[in-house]
Write a structure and sequence with these properties.
Strands 2, 3, 5, 6, 8 and 9 form a six-stranded mixed beta sheet that branches. Strands 1-4-7 form a three-stranded antiparallel beta sheet, with no helix packed on it. The protein has two helices and nine strands; from the N terminus they run H-E-H-E-E-E-E-E-E-E-E. By secondary structure, the chain is α+β, with helices and mostly antiparallel strands. It has a single domain (about 25-195), classed as chitin-binding protein cbp21 (Coagulation Factor XIII, Chain A, domain 1, Distorted Sandwich), CATH 2.70.50. It is about 15% helix and about 35% strand.
């Protein structure tokens, strides 16, 4: 009887290994509201997104933005080629959320793996931004319009930050949000298109 129990336990453990290996390793978080590009792909509101449609929470890349981090033109995908469709400007046709300069806007993150966090930072494209072009440092105001310090705390599974949007913008712009985690060498990137 004891031998059968040992064999049964060994078989169960062996069967569990492939399942554990198949689970995505980078399931963390993204802006759900207003819908980010990853959220729009995840819900099917935007098609031809590639694999990000299955993993909108996985846009993870090197931290240190803007001094380091993803290269220009790869910021929305966190420099991960698997999520490259997020960097495609789609001729300026990404769906936008209507906003007004100076208004307060809530950014709600859906977080699947709660990391110790340094901060969340929010950047906006400069006046005159051309929505048909990829996001680069030159197209962004590199001073965040909102920084939310966490000092090593973990965010909640649903985390909302309220920002006052900058003035002096009209037309289509992009908010680049960066979640700087404290316990890895990476950060999470989320791009949201807005229409002033």
């Amino acid at each position: 009887m004891r031998r059968r129990q040992i064999i049964g336990a060994a078989l169960a453990a062996a069967a569990a290994v492939p399942l554990a290996m198949a689970a995505p390793a980078s399931s963390h978080g993204f802006i759900n509201l207003p819908p980010s590009r990853a959220a729009l792909c995840g819900t099917g509101a935007v098609t031809n997104c590639g694999d990000i449609q299955w993993e909108p929470q996985s846009v993870e890349g090197p931290k240190g933005f803007p001094a380091k981090g993803p290269a220009d033109g790869t910021i929305c995908a966190g420099a991960d080629a698997r999520w490259a469709p997020l960097d495609n400007p789609r001729g300026g046709k990404w769906p936008t959320t209507k906003v007004t300069a100076g208004q307060q806007l809530n950014f709600t993150w859906e977080i699947e793996a709660r990391h110790s966090t340094t901060n969340f930072r929010y950047f906006l494209t400069k006046p005159g931004y051309d929505a048909t072009q990829k996001i680069t440092r030159a197209s962004l105001d590199l001073t965040p319009f909102l920084t939310v310090p966490y000092n090593g705390r973990q965010p909640a599974a649903t985390t909302t930050h309220t920002a006052t949007l900058p003035t002096g913008r009209t037309g289509h712009h992009v908010v680049v949000a960066v979640w700087d985690v404290a316990d890895t060498a990476n950060a999470f990137y989320s791009c949201t298109d807005v229409q002033f």
